[in-house]
Amino acid sequence: MTLPPSQGGGRVLGMCATTLTCGLLAMALMLAFATTSFAHGVAAGDQGYIQEITGIHLIPFVYLGAKHMATGYDHILFLLGVIFFLYRMQHIAIYVTLFAIGHSTTMLLGVYFNIGINSYIIDAIIGLSVVYKALDNMGAYQRWFGFQPNTKAATLIFGLFHGFGLSTKILEYDIAPDGLVPNLLAFNVGVEIGQLLALGAILIVMGFWRKSSSFFRHAYTANVAMMTAGFLLFGYQVAGYLVS
Predict the structure, then answer these.
(1) Rounded distance between C-alpha atoms, residue 164 and residue 117, angstroms
(2) In angstroms, rounded to a whole number, what is the distance separating the alpha carbons of residues 116 and 93?
């Protein structure tokens, strides 16, 4: 049981809550003007480097994987939604593991078998995954349909789609077949490192916020902001697909 914060601490925690909520709202607005390169795009320098090298290069691919996850705001938004109301570390570990299994499986298989999906379509689905999780956190499915979808299954399934998003972008690297499997495994390790770093930062902020009495007052607003961000990402990708 958490003791109530002091008045001064309460103000600080309240500011943290407001900052996080405003940050999510700012992210939602930013997505309205974002380009696809911000979400999953391959940086020109990174792409040029990968296209020039052959053989096994584990450290560079670990770095690229971590960088890709750390800058993939849609993955981070979904991860935030997944752990938003999870308090026990064992529960967080279960859901994060399911997500990791999902995106690792389709990322590795997609690249190895050269399965490319239109980036607009897969990124639109990823946007919907953010919408789905935000609505789940808001209790929408229980109110609308009278039942709660299996959250573990949904996390795994959307993890599979997120993995195809990763594989689609990795294919843009045009990786040399020499050393492909070790380099892919290294990239996946980097993705997991980036995910753990993002998760650690999220848990630190959420830990402070949850100690504040304002958490439940702002939780609904934060999930509305996440839902808005997901819809903006979805709409942007659908528009890009239609005009491409």
Answers:
(1) 7
(2) 30
Structure tokens at 5: 């914060």
Q: At 67, list the tokens.
A: 């960088």
Closest CA to 62 of 243, 228, 239, 196: 196
Task: Calculate the CA 133 to chain-centre distance.
Answer: 11
Pairwise CA distance, residues 131 & 23, whole Å: 17
Identify residue 65 by its one-letter amino acid code: G
> pTM here?
0.81
Q: Which two tokens stand for residue 162?
A: 């997120």
The total of other beta-carbon atoms located within 10 Å of residue 35's CB is: 9
- The structure tokens listed for 114 are 């050269």
Q: Residue 118's closest CA among 226, 220, 244?
A: 244
Separation of alpha carbons 41 and 170, rounded Å: 10
Cβ atoms 102, 89 nearer than 8 A:
no
Rounded (10°) CA dihedral 35, 17, 81, 98: 120
| CA–CA gap between residue 20 and residue 235 (Å, rounded) | 24
Query: What pLDDT, in 10s, does the model give residues 59-70?
Result: 999 998 898 888
Is the pLDDT at 14 greater than 80? The verdict is no
Average pLDDT over the chain, rounded to an integer: 83
Residue 121 and residue 116: Cα distance in Å, rounded? 11
